[in-house]
Amino acid sequence: MRVGFHATKQEGAIMENGQLTWITNFIWSIADDVLRDLYVRGKYRDVILPMTVIRRLDAVLEPTKQAVLDMKASLDKAGIVHQDAALRQAAGQAFYNTSKFTLRDLKARASRQQLEADFRAYLDGFSPNVQEIIDNFEFRHQIPRLAKADALGTLIEKFLDPSINLSPNPVLNSDGTVRLPGLDNHAMGTIFEELVHRFNEENNEEAGEHWTPRDAVRLMARLIFEPIADQIESGTYLLYDGACGTGGMLTVAEETLLQLAKERGKQVSVHLFGQEINAETYAICKADLLLKGEGDAADNIVGGPEHSTLSNDAFPGRTFDFMLSNPPYGKSWKSDLERMGGKAGIKDPRFVVRHRGEELSLITRTSDGQMLFLVNMLSKMKHDTPLGSRLAEVHNGSSLFTGDAGQGEIPYICQASQEVSIHGE
To answer: CB 369: neighbour CB atoms within 10 A?
Structure first.
């Protein structure tokens, strides 16, 4: 999801649009400098995106590195097994690294074999939430190729180049003046999203494949929030996307809700929830939230090949205030149906409901599962709050016209769901 650049203030120094663009261009250029002849251009992202995440997290953790190592030693000595919360507290972040290395420590490795071993140990030291990002990027699979070509050290050096600063803290001159302003979480998230967008364009990915055009997302957010903007009260609101891709819909919706609430003098807390089956886009989404300082939201994003929204609902029984999604079109969900017991055996209460003693099936044809994502959201609507739930979902036209005249999937599902919602069991 592409979001426009914004000026960011950091301890008296201004990170201007031009500086953000320059940093983005610098990171983009690393691919040509280091990866040319090692990878085809379409595969540059397999290295650059995870390395951008790793370097940012490394820079954020540098000031508390020793505190984390001390805490780790104390916990181990005391025989404490569950260490995550204490290590997060020591790091002052929603993530940490317990290896003895930072990227700067690895920069001076003379031996290619030693560098590879130490870099792996460094990656292994990250907290479980970061491990999940690294695993879904499949970044460890790239290390042998990089090491064999003697490119791993060069790659690390490029990301540590003194002309760019990916730390939230400014780089100072000897007289105390700011040489390079720090990157706050929003600015870093903006750079990361711009890199993702460029790689999508480079690979000729069509809108809707893994990301949705910004204008469409902002329109959806306005459709959800603006009609009831004056009814928003101070409190906590839950946002959900069952096909969250790289997370653009969730973050834009969050920004829109916070802005509307602020304009009306309301204090709201927003919690994001999402599910995504594609491993790389899931990793991007989770990484983007971590880079923006939204560690709690990152923990509420569930994904990977084993986490299909249709056959493996990550949030059963939970309801949400606002939901928006751009589900896949024309994609068969036959494998999901088989995992759910087939049409005769499916008992998922999202898709098989009871109304006035009669069992009603909301199952659609297996050649296109887009309508089941709508049914999934309908099952997660609130019915006991003043605003209830509001949702927006992108669909193509096929579901309107499948079946006999007037009997498309959308009219049938919406009518059946509405009757169950109004009349209950």
So the answer is: 25
d(CA 185, CA 293): 6
The amino acid occupying position 179 is R
Question: Angle 216-219-220 (CA atoms, 0-180°, nearest 5)?
Answer: 90
Domain count, the chain: 2
pLDDT in tens, 227-256: 999 999 999 999 999 999 888 899 999 999
In DSSP notation, 348-385 reads -TTTEEEETTEEEE----TT--HHHHHHHHHTTB-SSS
**Cα gap 40→43, rounded to integer Å:** 6
Cα–Cα distance between 248 and 250 in angstroms, integer? 5
Give the span between the Cα atoms of 280 and 210, in whole angstroms.
Answer: 10
| Burial annotation 128-153 (CB, 10 A radius, 16+ → b, else e) | ebbebbbebbebeebbeebbeeebbb
Q: What is the pTM of this model?
A: 0.82
Domain edge (last residue) among 163, 182, 202: 202
226 & 152 share domain: no
Q: How far apart are CA 328 and CA 369, in angstroms?
A: 8
Tokens 């809707």 sit on residue: 208
CATH code for the domain of 240: 3.40.50.150
pLDDT at 398: 62
Whether residues 160 and 254 share a domain: the answer is no
